[in-house]
Design brief:
This protein is of the alpha/beta class. It is built from 14 helices and eleven strands. Helix 3 links the parallel strand 1 and strand 2. The protein binds calcium ion. The site of calcium ion (CA) has 5 residues, from loops.
Length: 366
Amino acid sequence: MASFKFCKVKQNLIILLSSIFLFSCSSEKISNTSNEIKETFKWRMVTTWPKNYPGVGLGAENLAKLVNEMSDGRLQIKVFGNGELVPALEVFDTVSRGSVEMGHGAAYYWIGKVPAAQFFTAIPFGLNAQEMNAWLHYGGGQELWEELYEPFNLIPMAGGNTGVQMAGWFNKEINSLNDLKGIRMRIPGMAGEVFTRAGGEAVLMPGSEIFTNLQTGVIDAAEWIGPYNDLTFGFHQAAKYYYYPGWHEPGPTLETLVNKEAFNSLPKDLQVILVTASRAVNQDMLDEYTARNNQALISLINDHGIELRKLPDDVLAEFKKITDELLLEMIEKDDASRKIYKSLSEFQKNVSDYHEISEKALYDLR
Ligand code: CA
């Protein structure tokens, strides 16, 4: 909080000096110009992404740029990539403490500290992007998210979405549940636990280490995001089979984090700009992924000769069964998870029924 307070003191001093200067002018000038003198805020945003990484990382950059332009430079946000100021997994604590004002990442990175945070990114077989946005913004999800982060002095907002991801890259074909045995796969979070219980072995590692580990055989499989990002990492040079569907991350929401005191220190118009910009970036990222993923998939198939495969039905059925068991275990031990899952699962039931006769019926028709 120290640097933030220092900034404020400096800004207050500038305003005070400006006021003294104005008092020496005519009263008319005071009324004409006083409205123009508005405090400028210089903030920092730490992120979990490599600096300027396409899609997710540029989402954070876009947010800062948009806020700067919308506020006419009154709220300036400097963006830091993973490790530039703090490592990816320290983003939550850093913003919570107020050492920096903002963060950008994904809520399920914090499940060690807040297990129920998982629900605000994605759960296996859960909501897609459109449904996540609907639950958060019109289904009570945002209020539950704010309540969950309240003890940490943090205000969360949706800050991007990749859409349905891919199941991942495999060096071996998966033709049945039996083929999962002994497969070491980079797959994080709750999905990793599902994969391990289904007979495989989940391994954790940051995105930047996946390629080498896949190429050298340290792991046999890996999930990352989808065709657009996977192509930029070159995973097609390390594994042959590209599996769908992204059962584990059906519409992962990224997260904009704001320190509560920093947020409350902003005048109302800058608060609205920040919230609106995050909402815009949340949608913009999905638009970008929707446009670029299918182009990248065409390139992966036509230019790079990858083999596109669907995970077998028995594998997906087993993943679903284990996911349901895990969710039950989770809501038994954690009150917040129980409350949030109740809201989310009821929403999912109703929206699925509607999407069966709307979105899905349309897909089947085309
Ligand atoms: Ca992923």
